[in-house]
């Protein structure tokens, strides 16, 4: 995690710019991990470690935690609503077979997987925040 340590050494930045800088840093980490042959689980662990480090070194860890928690909850709720809507729509195709039915089922499974990952991320975020 040398890159995270280097990022932390930069120190304080103006509040107005901090969210954008952190977002750009996270995008850089995602780009670097996507160029490597990591599994999706390994990429997820790396991003969690980065977020945990950013949280623990934040000038206002409580605000950072609350903002990230709210962001994850919003993603979970949005995905839950979309999955529920897809499942409701699936009822109209109960007698149908083929690509459309398979497509709906695949979308539902993808939403459930995202929800599971975000809940796991939320749990790890809470653990990291409570360890400080």
Write a compact overview of the structure shown.
The chain has five helices and no strands. It is mainly alpha-helical.
Characterization of the model:
The structure is a single chain. By secondary structure, the chain is mostly helical. It folds into two domains: 1-59; 60-132. 83% of the residues lie in helices and 0% in strands. The protein is built from five helices and no strands. It has helices at 2-9, 15-35, 40-56, 61-90, 99-131. It is elongated and about 60 Å long.
Count of all domains: 2
Q: What amount of the residues lies in strands?
A: under 5%
Mean model confidence by pLDDT: 80
Give the overall silhouette.
elongated
Strand pairing plus helix content: what structural class?
A: mainly alpha
Number of strands: 0
Oligomer: single chain
Radius of gyration: 18 Å
Produce the secondary structure layout.
Blueprint: H1 2-9, H2 15-35, H3 40-56, H4 61-90, H5 99-131
Helix pairs in contact: 2-3, 3-5, 4-5
Task: Give descriptors for this structure.
5 helices; 0% strand; mainly alpha; 132 residues
């Amino acid at each position: 995690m040398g890159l995270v340590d280097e990022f932390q050494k930069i120190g304080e930045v103006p509040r107005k710019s901090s969210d954008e800088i952190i977002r750009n840093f996270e995008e850089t980490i995602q780009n670097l991990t996507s160029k490597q042959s990591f599994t999706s689980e390994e990429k997820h662990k790396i991003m969690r470690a980065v977020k945990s480090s950013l949280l623990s070194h934040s000038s206002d860890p409580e605000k950072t935690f609350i903002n990230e928690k709210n962001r994850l909850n919003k993603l979970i709720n949005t995905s839950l609503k979309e999955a529920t809507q897809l499942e409701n729509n699936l009822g109209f195709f109960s007698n149908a077979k083929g690509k459309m039915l398979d497509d709906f089922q695949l979308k539902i499974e993808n939403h459930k997987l995202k929800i599971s990952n975000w809940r796991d991320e939320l749990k790890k975020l809470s653990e990291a925040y409570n360890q400080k």
